[in-house]
Amino acid sequence: MADTLHALSVAIVGGGVGGLTAAITLRQQGHNITVIEQKQQYLDSNGGGGLSISFNAIRCLLRLGIDEELKQIADEATEWLVQRHSDGVEKSRTKVEKWRIFVHRTDLLRVLHRRAAQLGVQFMFGQSFQSLQEVEHGVKVQISNGEIVDADVLLGADGINSKVRPAIPGNRDIPPELTGHRTFLVDVPKQKMDQHPDTAELYSLPAFQSWIGGQRAIIGWTMRGRESYHFQMNDHRVGNGEYRGTNDGSTERFVSRVADMPAFRESWKDYEPTVRQMLDAVESCTEWKIAELPEHVAWSDASGRVILIGDAAHAFAPFAGQGACMALEDATVLSAMISRMKPPYDWPAVAQAYARMRQPRIHLIRENIRAIIAICCQPADDVPGPGSAPTMPHLLKDEFEVVQNYDAFEEALKVWDTLRLNGERN
Ligand SMILES: Cc1cc2nc3c(=O)[nH]c(=O)nc-3n(C[C@H](O)[C@H](O)[C@H](O)COP(=O)(O)OP(=O)(O)OC[C@H]3O[C@@H](n4cnc5c(N)ncnc54)[C@H](O)[C@@H]3O)c2cc1C
């Protein structure tokens, strides 16, 4: 841990991927960190726990000192297979290396939590953020048990329905908007997949599988040491494939169990037999109404002492598998910039530099998501194969060049040093 003459007190609301990463990286610098998390503990959710983490974000994870633990919980793919939805005809097969790992969200949160606790991060579980009050040299954070947490700076890492976000002037009337797109998450245990030769075959290759067509797409991968298979089924038919849907007002809860499984299976009956067999093998699945935030959210207040990271700042649709990855990058960038600061801390400068660096990158991811939706919404029999553009592998190339090769930590230091915001390096 670095020697820090002036250890900061940092309160972090939300112990998700973004909040825990910020907690670890700032604690590694010697700061005093308190994480306020509304959940009591990290438990398996009811199905649909798959998280795909791309190499830009793996770089961030590898800075946390969890290399061995990460290996224990991660599956990898060596190929990306794209198939036509209606008959499973292979459209492309791309070798991938240093691309993505596939983890169960709860496993990742537990690894991050263990590491943070080991470093001495303080946790207040079962407590939710109530309000904040800015004082001359800091922030007073009121939590649900009535306690006040004093901090030099507060990070709002409390997800898409953030309560910290509306406490920043200008964000009061910016709720998440429903896009009209839906995602269904299915985790199938290996023994169920083994019951049919077609579904069993999905295990024969360490491949990331996708089926595209009919204004929908499915992606699938193995998880937990190839013990279960995770399917993410994206349905772009609602809203006629429009990226923007309307806000039906029910933005507090986006996730529910599919009530009518036979009707759900029926709505995917134009997909090839392997998909239908997989759907026959499961009794339930989870539906997410996909919501996102507009781009004009303010990421910090004027004092720079209240800063948003992750979904709290920029929730977007999950079709590029980048939401958690961007939360990891946000935390890494902000911590890298803070590591360069010297007292007296110029919080407005760091908050501005962080937002100015991160916002164009988030915009780029949103553009990628639009391109992915456009591919999925092409007429059913005209899903492009290799050679025609754009295709998923074309996007994969972009991913490598623009997304995967990105080192958030190094980029942040470059930006900070270029701005010379705080004099010479520490
Ligand atoms: C269907 C679906 C599939 C996805 N798949 C992927 C994927 O494969 N790869 C990927 O990178 N991203 C994926 N994402 C996106 C990813 O889940 C999010 O972007 C990511 O979880 C954001 O992390 P976060 O830490 O910002 O917020 P969250 O993960 O939402 O964490 C917020 C934390 O804050 C806590 N909290 C909330 N309110 C309060 C409060 N008032 N007080 C205290 N604590 C509070 C919550 O309990 C939670 O622990 C997917 C999203 C969806 C919907």
From TrEMBL:
Gene3D superfamilies: FAD/NAD(P)-binding domain. InterPro entries: FAD-bd (IPR002938), FAD-dep_Monooxygenase_BioMet (IPR050493), FAD/NAD-bd_sf (IPR036188). It comes from the Eukaryota. Residues 9-338 form the FAD-binding domain. Belongs to the paxM FAD-dependent monooxygenase family. GO terms for molecular function: FAD binding; monooxygenase activity. Keywords: FAD, Flavoprotein, Monooxygenase, Oxidoreductase. The keyword Transcription regulation does not apply. This is FAD-binding domain-containing protein.
